[in-house]
Specification:
The chain is 49% helix and 12% strand. By secondary structure, the protein is α/β, with parallel strands linked by helices. It has three domains: 223 residues, no CATH class; 133 residues, Rossmann fold (3-Layer(aba) Sandwich), CATH 3.40.50; 131 residues, no CATH class. α1 runs antiparallel to α13. The chain is flat and about 85 Å long. The two termini are 34 Å apart.
Length: 515
């Protein structure tokens, strides 16, 4: 079954019956300036990680050279001498040495992949050095007579041809990705004074830079605040950054303020740390200098790291694979149970089997989350404006059981595998109108939205520690946020696996708050 078809079927089932009347939902959104809206309205492609691209190219180089050597061995040497392990060992040794030399020659950079001359000259010289090294080692080990010279020459020239062909294809791909903006680090500058202008000029002066400055933000309205900084427009105030970053892709927030403005910087960081972006402090104008290792560099511009976006690059790839592989196995295992639950829901009360609810996703994105319907259809609450309590009359007989055991959450496996807006493990997605008494969750807990820096999950660290179900006091929502933030800062694949394995035990022993 194709994912799109499956999702369409889910949407159709979830909306099979007419929804009950409900008051219109008015979303709270900060008004942006016209200049910021111009940027937000631009179509932006999803970014590709340069670190992952470089890693994939390394693996392709290793596999390509190994295949060339093995093909020549099977086609020429084996018919003459039979199978020999020493040839295979030599092939993998040469391929591995080539990748190491390419790394030493610093050609695994996305900026170099765009070019041609520097990349090719470094690659040819490194590949030639590897063969000279191999020939020298064979000579001193007195193995020259054991190795076919024709095979060795063919391996060199065909391997080089394969590498050149691969790099030409890679160059075309990288240039196309660059035109689409997939390799850009979309950057906003905080501070539109002379320091900000100097920083923008320094960033734009870099050759082959991936930094794309979208604009500047500043709270000041006096003569120090410029309308444009080296061509970068002023997009608004610092308070606008959170809303701006949720409506357009932002990869880096760079402060142009001096370190001496400590109080102002701390006030701004309290507002911005909830975003899933890198936050750095520019040190290009600071007279106080630290050790070179204390800095990370954007070209030649020194910066100090303040916050890093969680679960990026290879971590993101590993989590994606974990969700797809383990999620597929979990769905296959759960299908019989899901069929029985669907039948029980249908027989228990009229209405659709599935229920669809708007919840917070990654970076406050609004997503549709699927659940088995646990309430009477005419009393459904899609916005979760009213918290489900113990012995709630809106909940059906089957609904009480599936909510208590969390079987109502099983359809969210479709969100993981088909929609891709949920993960198996992560902070639980709360309803967009979720409230503690009369206050929305983000009004009740400082830094609440920081839990949305990663994709939400079906289960999470807070849930396996007993913080699930009804939220009727401030401690319950604070503890959820506390455990979610701990998970984000300490994520690993093994941590995800541990939480998954602990989930069934938690459902049996820590379900006193689930109604």
């Amino acid at each position: 079954m194709e994912p799109l078809n499956a999702r369409s079927m889910l949407d159709a089932v979830a909306s099979a019956a007419v929804k009950p009347a409900e008051p219109p939902f008015v979303e709270r959104r900060r008004r942006l300036t016209p200049a910021a809206l111009d940027v937000v309205n631009q179509k932006v492609a999803r970014a590709y990680s340069p670190i992952v691209i470089a890693g994939v190219v390394r693996a392709i180089d290793l596999a390509l050279l190994s295949l060339v050597g093995i093909a020549l061995f099977v086609g020429y040497v084996m018919p003459l001498t039979g199978f020999r392990w020493d040839y295979l060992a030599a092939i993998f040794a040469v391929a591995t040495a080539a990748v190491v030399c390419f790394q030493a020659a610093d050609i695994y950079q996305v900026q170099l992949f765009r070019g041609q001359l520097r990349q090719m000259t470094r690659m040819i010289s490194s590949w030639s050095f590897v063969f000279l090294l191999f020939i020298g080692a064979s000579f001193f080990a007195k193995l020259g007579g054991e190795v076919s010279r024709l095979w060795l020459a063919a391996f060199y020239f065909l391997g080089l041809a394969a590498l050149i062909g691969e790099r030409l294809v890679l160059r075309s791909l990288v240039r196309n990705w660059a035109r689409q903006g997939r390799l850009d680090r979309r950057t906003i500058i905080v501070g539109s004074d002379s320091n900000g202008e100097e920083l923008v000029e320094a960033l734009k002066a870099q050759e082959d830079s991936d930094i794309h400055v979208l604009g500047v933000f500043d709270d000041r309205n006096d003569s120090r605040a410029l309308d444009t900084c080296a061509g970068a427009p002023k997009l608004g105030k610092v308070d606008d950054i959170v809303e701006f970053a949720r409506r357009s892709r932002v990869d880096l927030v760079l402060f142009a303020l001096p370190i001496s403005a400590e109080t102002r910087i701390l006030e701004m960081l309290k507002k911005l740390w909830v975003l899933p972006v890198d936050i750095r402090l520019s040190a290009h104008t600071n007279k106080l200098r630290f050790r070179p290792r204390s800095y990370s560099y954007l070209g030649d511009v020194p910066t100090l790291d303040v916050f890093e976006a969680p679960i990026t690059d290879w971590d993101l790839v590993m989590k994606w694979l974990f969700d797809r592989i383990v999620g597929s196995l979990a769905l296959l295992a759960a299908l019989p149970v899901m069929a029985l639950v669907a039948l029980a829901v249908k027989l228990d009360s009229p209405g659709p089997v599935l229920f669809r609810q708007k919840r917070f996703g990654f970076n406050n994105e609004r997503i549709d989350v699927y659940k088995f319907r646990s309430m009477y259809h005419h009393q459904a609450d899609p916005t979760a404006a009213k918290v489900v309590t113990k012995n709630d009359p809106r909940v059906t007989r089957v609904g009480r059981f599936i909510r208590k055991t969390s079987l109502d959450e099983l359809p969210q496996l479709f969100n993981v595998l088909f929609s891709g807006n949920l993960s198996l493990v992560g902070p639980r997605p709360h309803a967009v109108q979720g409230k503690l008494q009369a206050r929305l969750f983000d009004e009740a807990v400082d830094g609440y939205f920081a839990r949305h820096r990663v994709k939400p999950g079906i289960t999470g660290w807070a849930q396996v520690n007993g913080w699930r179900g009804e939220i009727d006091n401030e401690e319950k929502i604070q503890k959820r946020v506390e455990f979610d933030l701990y998970y984000i800062e300490n994520w690993s694949v093994l941590f995800d696996l541990y939480i998954l394995l602990k989930t069934p035990i938690s459902l049996l022993t820590k379900n006193e708050n689930a109604y």
